[in-house]
Design goal:
Blueprint (H helix, E strand, L loop, with lengths): L4 H7 L5 E10 L2 E11 L3 E6 L6 H8 L15 E4 L11 E4 L11 H11 L4 H14 L14 H14 L4 E5 L7 H17 L3 E6 L10 E6 L2 E6 L1 H8 L4 H21 L6 H4 L25 H6 L3 H18 L1 H21 L7 E7 L8 H8 L5 E5 L3 H9 L5 E5 L3 H10 L14 E5 L4 H23 L10 H8 L12 H16 L5 H10 L12 H25 L3 H18 L11 H7 L5 H13 L6 H29 L1
The chain binds adenosine-5'-triphosphate.
GO molecular function: ABC-type transporter activity; ATP binding; ATP hydrolysis activity
Keywords: ATP-binding, Membrane, Nucleotide-binding, Transmembrane, Transmembrane helix
Membrane topology: Multi-pass membrane protein
Length: 660
């Protein structure tokens, strides 16, 4: 029967592992230097060498966790496991990494079930295997949590996972570390048995050179080079030594001499001289490898992963369910907090402002048909909470202390002027009206508020024009230019000086300090001073009050931190709750969007949160030059102090309850 070349390739038994000209660089150092190694299937291959020689690097390269250098000048680089690309081995390989790589919250049983499902084992099969492995590896009760196991026990669980699905190839990084001599003997016996009976290949690394006598093939490694590879007895005979340790010593001295020679002859560093020992690296049997390097032409690549995709998803799902069952608090954090945060965002940010407290003074006699009454009737009472005052001084005082967000001051000739402006289209008359009868004061530090007020008054003046056309306002004829004149009322608004950044900065400063607690208070202020954040604020107020407010807010943050630390015992939970609270506080305290944008019922609660008044006060101090005599500043200090006391009492209470 005739075979085409490709058919022969398909039939050939692939090597267990095949490395051709593999160089791995980590940082700026070549950790593996042009490694050539081919191992046939069946038997134990032990990689020996001192700490730091590159054993783990070789293993990690084999399993695809490290990528070798592309060496275009040398022979074609190749890495394969059982004829497959290193990323495609899936079910056929059992891998035990040097690090634990275990889910510490799982029990031994759950961990074995998790990995069993990942490789598509049936529950019965997993049960049967884990009972065997628990006995064989002398593991504690299967319901014991991994986090409570000793380091050695955890390594044995990791070893059990590698053996669980009875793979054709075992890649084990130091499987016998931390294992007592008796169990070590049992492990070697088991490996010998499965490699002989089931044609399994075990590739392992070890520090214990003498235990490697039980391996079929061993390879000595030093400084990223394979010094020599062969059967243990053959190496002993060849080097006429009694122990493998002595062989290794001799090889090391030999390689050292070669390196020294290279050095003294001032030869250029070249791969051939450095990998002189690699030349004696063997291919145990020259069976042709039928696998190909490119993923696209590897027929088994997908078939390894696809059949148990569903089972893998199931394993991941079960793992997460168990995790949530054990820690329901995490469930709240993971699912409810994002929902809450989105809901709060929708409630607090981007909404139209409402209930803005506005002073209204009119020196006109308010009666039917007067301009003042017209304006008053047109003001949207959902947006503005209009409070009428007799004198501008009275309103101005309340405006200055932050009780009012703006004032409308209407002069006694407003109605007459309104009609005159509406009917007189001549630009030359504009100066005549400069001492306007309609004056508006606004809190310019709140940019969103300025927009809302301006927008609302433009709307009001536009509707006055509509009223005229409908005949409600006056019988005097108006033309297009008179409309323009009416719109010019808007020019009476003060020029906007502050940006959105100015609005945000006071809140950001306080939230940073609050959440990073009192220890960072001084530091944050220093940072803000040094990185120029404070320079961006045209600070008008006392640095003493703003600093004091920062300190007391920091103290409040610290007491809040104390409450968290008494409630939660794990770092992760404490961290999660702090993170979960940060965003809602940011939204609810009016840092991003004015409080006037929140529904009124919500505002009555949020204005008493620890940071809300403090942020308002901080804006007042930094942007408007407020002092301690301002009611909001006083409220800010009191509210922060009361919250701090509440948090402290709560901490003591929880602490005492826990001790009982
Ligand atoms: N990510 C990295 N970046 C830079 N160098 C690394 C990195 N990982 C490992 N190395 C270096 O590579 C060398 C080989 O490390 P490797 O872990 O392969 O040694 P090893 O033979 O397995 O040692 P041990 O037996 O102690 O585990 C060491 O000198 C190590 O410092």
């Amino acid at each position: 029967m005739e075979y085409a070349i490709n058919d022969l390739d398909e039939l050939a038994i692939p090597y267990a592992i095949e490395l051709i000209d593999v160089t791995v660089r980590l940082g700026n150092r070549d950790i593996l230097k042009s490694i050539h190694l081919t191992i046939e299937q069946g038997g134990i291959f032990a990689l020996l060498g001192p700490s730091g020689c590159g054993k783990t690097t070789l293993i990690r390269t084999l399993v695809g966790r490290l990528q070798p250098l592309n060496n275009h000048n040398g022979p074609r680089r190749k890495i394969s496991i059982l004829g497959k690309h290193t990323h495609a081995f899936g079910q056929i390989v059992g891998f035990m990494p040097q690090e634990m790589a275990l889910h510490s919250s799982n029990t031994i049983e759950e961990e074995l079930f998790f990995y069993g499902r990942l490789v598509n084992m049936s529950n019965e099969k997993i049960k049967q295997r884990y009972q065997f492995l628990i006995n064989f590896l002398e593991l504690p009760h299967e319901r014991k949590s991994i986090s409570t196991l000793s380091g050695g026990q955890q390594r044995r669980v990791s070893f059990a996972i590698a053996l669980l699905h009875e793979p054709k190839l075992l890649i084990l990084d130091e499987p016998t570390v931390g294992v007592d001599p008796l169990l070590r003997k049992k492990i070697w016996q088991h490996l010998t048995e499965i490699t002989m009976k089931n044609d399994v290949t075990a590739i392992l690394t070890t520090h214990y050179i003498e235990e490697a006598r039980q391996a079929n093939i061993i390879s000595f490694m030093r400084y990223g080079n394979l010094l020599e590879t062969g059967r243990p007895n053959d190496l002993l005979l060849k080097h006429e030594q009694q122990t493998l340790e002595a062989v290794f010593l001799e090889l090391c001295e030999g390689s050292h001499r070669v390196e020294m020679q290279c050095h003294t002859q001032e030869k250029v560093h070249d791969h051939k001289s450095l990998t002189i020992a690699n030349k004696i690296c063997h291919s145990f049997q020259s069976v042709r490898c039928s696998c190909c390097m490119r993923e696209s032409c590897c027929p088994t690549l997908r078939s390894c992963a696809r059949p148990y995709l569903g089972r893998s998803l199931c394993a991941l799902l079960i793992k997460d369910i168990l995790k949530f069952q054990r820690n329901p608090f995490m469930l709240i954090i993971q699912f409810l907090v994002p929902i809450l945060q989105i809901a709060l965002f929708c409630l607090c940010v981007g909404r139209k402002l409402s209930n803005i407290p506005f002073g209204f003074i009119s020196r006109e006699t308010i009666g039917s048909g007067s301009g003042s009454e017209l304006i008053l009737n047109k003001i949207d009472r959902n947006i503005f909470k209009i409070i009428e005052y007799k004198t501008i001084d009275e309103a101005q005082r309340l405006f200055d202390v932050g009780y009012l967000s703006g004032i409308i001051n209407i002069g006694e000739n407003f109605s007459r002027e309104l009609i005159e402006k509406a009917t007189n289209c001549s630009f030359s008359n504009v100066n005549k009206y400069n001492d306007s009868q309609f004056t508006m004061y606004m809190d310019q530090t709140n940019r969103q508020m300025v927009y809302t007020i301006a927008e609302e008054f433009i709307r009001i003046f536009k509707t006055i024009d509509v009223d005229y056309h409908l005949g409600f306002f006056t019988s005097t004829p108006m033309n297009q230019e008179s409309l323009f004149k009416l719109a010019q009322f808007h020019n009476n608004l003060p020029e906007i000086e502050y940006t959105f950044t100015h609005f945000m900065i006071p809140g950001i400063i306080l939230s940073v300090i609050f959440f990073f607690n009192v220890a960072l208070t001084a530091l944050s202020l220093v940072i803000e001073q040094s990185d120029g954040t404070q320079e961006r604020i045209p600070s008008r107020g006392s640095l003493l009050y703003s600093s004091l407010l920062c300190v007391i807010q920091g103290f409040c943050g610290m007491t809040f931190g104390l409450v968290i630390s008494t409630i939660f015992t794990t770092e992760i939970n404490a961290h999660q709750i702090t993170m979960s609270i940060f965003y809602p506080v940011l939204l609810l305290s009016g840092i991003v969007w004015p409080l006037e944008g929140q529904p009124i019922w919500m505002r009555t609660v949020t204005e008493w949160l620890p940071m809300t008044k403090a942020i308002d006060a901080m804006r007042g101090i930094l942007l408007k030059g407020w002092g301690i005599q301002h009611l909001i500043v006083q409220q800010a200090f009191w509210i922060t102090f009361i919250w701090s006391m509440v948090f402290l009492i709560l901490t003591l209470f929880i602490f005492n309850c826990r001790r009982l």
